[in-house]
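pinging the channel bc i need a second pair of eyes. not urgent but kinda urgent?? the chain im working w is below, pasted from the shared doc
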Amino acid sequence: MNRCLVLDPVPRSACALTVFCGVAIGVCVLGIALLVAGCGANTPPNRYTVFVDPTITEADELAIGEALASWQNVTGKAWLDLSYPALCPQDIHPGDICVRYGAGGDVGGITEVWDNGRAYIWLRSPVTLQAAAHELGHAQGIYNHLGPGTVMCANTGCAAEDVTPADAVAWERER
């Protein structure tokens, strides 16, 4: 039996409104909960382990190390663990970044990011600070900036040579 009929003198229209509002509020709460849960699912990790392949030369290791230090200095976070020379594990985990030599087309490198921050970076030799810092930015979940003067600018002609405060803002925004 309908409870609204028992709760006299509540008019039927008020009961219908109460039921509608209760259902609507329940749907909204469920929707918000799913949205919040979904938003955190693709958030990049805050800590990374970077594996630098043993085939990378000492000079290129220095450029990669300088790029890692630059990201840490500009973001103010000590979030990178560097392992070099080290083969990338076969089963990489979220937060693992594997750096290897590879074809980078007419740019200094290419990055492939998998779910939750697993990434492979292929760099061309000689590795420049700009290329290493840019590709490390992608590995951390940062997309190309449209504006010039950042290391994450979409092309080398507009990109800064090193990580900038604007790049750090983009890093924070992704978290």
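so The chain is about 40% helix and 15% strand. and The first strand starts at residue 48 and ends at 52. — does that match what u expected or am i reading it wrong
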